[in-house]
Design a protein that fits this description.
Largest sheet: 8 strands, mixed
Bound molecules: NADPH dihydro-nicotinamide-adenine-dinucleotide phosphate, ribulose-5-phosphate
CATH topology of the largest domain: N-(1-d-carboxylethyl)-l-norvaline Dehydrogenase, domain 2
Number of strands: 10
Enzyme class: oxidoreductase
Order of helices and strands: EHEHEHEHEHEHEHEEEHHHHHHHHHHHH
Shape: globular
CATH class of the largest domain: Mainly Alpha
GO biological process, one term: D-gluconate metabolic process
Pfam families: 6PGD, NAD_binding_2
Distance between the termini: 92 Å
Radius of gyration: 25 Å
EC number: 1.1.1.44
GO molecular function: NADP binding; phosphogluconate dehydrogenase (decarboxylating) activity
Helix content: 40-55%
Length: 470
């Protein structure tokens, strides 16, 4: 008699189908269910040698019945109300001790709420962030787990087995209780937005400033991927720059509309950073840039009304080497902001986030994987709360790259090329090394119009200004 699978997965879309095959390939039988049965049939038909590991079901009732209790059921459906509806449909069919694992990009607050609902209804729940896109889900994603330690331990062998490996170390870790896993995934995506935006800004300097072709841009990205910027996003930027459109024969990038999509995780990161009072201006600039990109009609109207600001640049203004250093600085600054946010969240939500292990889990499998993360993990091992810009080797790297970042922002500004994320990184860095900011002016203004009071630099006990007398 064949054993029933312990695992089941609902939602055979891009991520769910790949994850189910990954789980099957690692020697686990898995039951699958999809709202549209035709998709299940096609998935099974294409499953090849893994067919015997898969148990296809056509109803939720059959799906639950096909799994051995205590069941481990992975949801890979769009985040939000669909997850709630799926849980609501599932729960009446479950036994106590069954475990629901939401593996989509849920908002951590929804995940916290779902934990409470699970406690009341007596099933177990995990919220896990999965990164790596379709390829990662199929062959090794980075996995960030939130929930009870005992539930993590129940699934850890399988999650570790399917995860990406960095020198044999699985990129799957328990981040903490409740929504901790989804929170870490959210910040991962915020950094992803910032990383992508800064690469796009470098592309803009090449394309609009130096007049480079996509092939020339591809060469620069390919070169950069052998140095400190070595990362998945730089690698794929080289690939997309090199690609040719099979329809027109033009460079692929030259036929793609300049409106960036978004599902919301970057925006959530910016909002949550504001809630914590942690500045993440590079991420905020990246989110704003996506929003601005969407306003194409207004931008076209602006170009017609005000004229394009674009001026050509020469190699006297900017070189690929300078841009590489500028991007290196920008990358350090945006990761520093992301980790500072995670440290603040860890304390605020009392999660004890494993800061250096977050960097380790991101070394492979996920979209922001990059060579720099190994050094970041070591720096966070030494001090998990000190901002990364103060840690070796990033302190020295920033000193080395700062002038190139400044020159890049200056050159781009002179040429009329918007570089909001790089400029935001530079301003943040400049502020972080300014012992006396102009915030004394803001304090004086606040006191003038609202008697809000201020602290003084000296010991004089006079917390208000002489405004009435002015
Ligand atoms: N794509 C990516 O690169 C990544 C995505 N994610 C996250 O993973 C989750 C899934 O994303 P992805 O695989 O890309 O999405 P897809 O759109 O490819 O697949 C969605 C799946 O959910 C099912 N579904 C949609 N609506 C409902 C509904 N109302 N009730 C039941 N099932 C429904 C679909 O079934 P049907 O066939 O019937 O439509 C399909 O199986 C999301 O939370 C996403 O943010 C996380 C990391 C990376
Ligand atoms: O989570 C991911 C990778 O880590 C997804 O690819 C994410 O959906 C991309 O976000 P957006 O659609 O907002 O660009």
């Amino acid at each position: 008699m064949t054993h029933k699978p312990e695992y089941g997965l609902i939602g055979l879309g891009t991520m769910g189908a790949a994850l189910a095959l990954n789980i099957a390939e690692k020697g686990n039988k898995i039951a699958v269910y999809n709202r549209t049965t035709k998709v299940t049939d096609e998935f099974i038909a294409a499953s090849g040698a893994l067919r015997d590991q898969l148990v296809a079901t056509a109803s939720l009732k059959d799906f639950v019945a096909a799994i051995q209790a205590p069941r481990k059921i992975i949801l890979m459906v769009p985040a939000g109300p669909i997850v709630d509806a799926q849980i609501e449909a599932l729960v009446p069919l479950l036994d106590a001790d069954d475990l629901i694992i939401d593996a989509g990009n849920a908002h951590y607050a929804d995940t916290n709420r779902r934990f409470k609902e699970a406690e009341t209804a007596a099933y177990n729940f995990l919220g896990i962030g999965v990164s790596g896109g379709e390829e990662g889900a199929r062959h090794g994603p980075s996995i960030m787990v939130g929930g009870a330690q005992s539930d993590w331990e129940a699934v850890a062998p399988v999650l570790r087995a399917i995860s990406a490996k960095y020198e044999d170390t699985p990129c799957a870790e328990h981040m903490g209780a409740g929504g901790a896993g989804h929170y870490v995934k959210m910040v991962h995506n915020g950094i992803e937005y910032a990383d992508m935006q800064m690469i796009a800004e470098a592309y803009a300097v090449f394309r609009d400033g130096l007049g480079w072709t996509s092939t020339q841009v591809a060469e620069a990205f390919e070169q950069w991927n052998t140095g400190p910027l070595a990362s998945y996003l730089v690698e794929i930027s080289g690939k997309v720059s090199r690609a040719t459109d099979p329809v027109t024969g033009k460079a692929m990038l030259d036929v793609i509309l300049d409106q960036a999509g978004q599902k919301g995780t970057g925006r959530w990161t910016a909002i949550e950073a504001q809630m914590l009072g942690v500045p993440v201006p590079v991420i905020e600039a990246a989110v704003a840039a996506r929003n601005l990109s969407a306003k194409r009609d207004t931008r076209i109207q602006g170009a017609e009304r005000f004229g394009s600001p674009l001026q050509p640049l020469t190699s006297d203004d900017i070189t690929p080497e300078m841009l590489e250093k500028a991007l290196t600085a920008g990358k350090i600054l945006c990761y520093a902001q992301g980790f500072e946010m995670l440290d603040a969240a860890s304390r605020h939500f009392e999660w004890s986030l494993p800061m250096s292990n977050i960097a380790r889990v991101w070394r492979e499998g996920c979209i922001i994987r990059s060579d720099m993360l190994g050094d970041m993990a070591e720096a966070l091992d030494k001090s998990s709360s000190q901002n990364l810009i103060f840690s070796a080797p990033f302190c020295d790297m920033l000193m080395d790259c700062e002038s190139a970042l400044r020159a890049t922002v200056l050159a781009a500004t002179k040429a009329g090329i918007p570089v909001p994320a790089l400029a935001a990184g530079l301003s943040w860095f400049d502020t972080m090394r300014t012992a006396r900011t102009p915030a004394n002016m803001i304090q004086a203004q606040r006191d003038f119009f609202g008697a809000h009071g201020f602290k003084r630099l000296d010991d004089v006990d006079a917390p208000h200004g002489p405004w009435a007398a002015q």
